[in-house]
Amino acid sequence: MATEEKNVKKKQLRPQQKKDKKPKEKRTKSTRRRLLPIWLRILLVLVLSAVALALGLMIGYGIIGDGDPLDALSWSTWQHIIDIVTGETE
After folding, report:
1. Would you call 70 helix, strand, or coil by DSSP?
2. pTM of the predicted protein model
3. pLDDT digits 0-9 by tens, 5-57
4. Do 60 and 72 meet the contact criterion of CB atoms below 8 Å apart?
5. Among 29, 36, 37, 58, whose CB has the most other CB atoms within 10 angstroms?
């Protein structure tokens, strides 16, 4: 009988619990206005990456390698490096 009384009490509590709960308020969907559009962010990342690469080349070639920093950006320097790597020497 004890289990039957517990079951009856549980059934009686369930409707009361549902009534006690407050209805959930619906959230209003707010749109977030971005400062920079996604396409501009991607473009900005690409440009900043290219600038960082160029600065890294100039620092590595000019300061660490004791050469002229602007020579790191010239095509003749890269052609010479490609010739050394591929084994084409004149």
Report:
1. helix
2. 0.55
3. 666 666 665 555 555 566 666 777 788 888 889 999 999 999 999 999 999 99
4. yes
5. 58
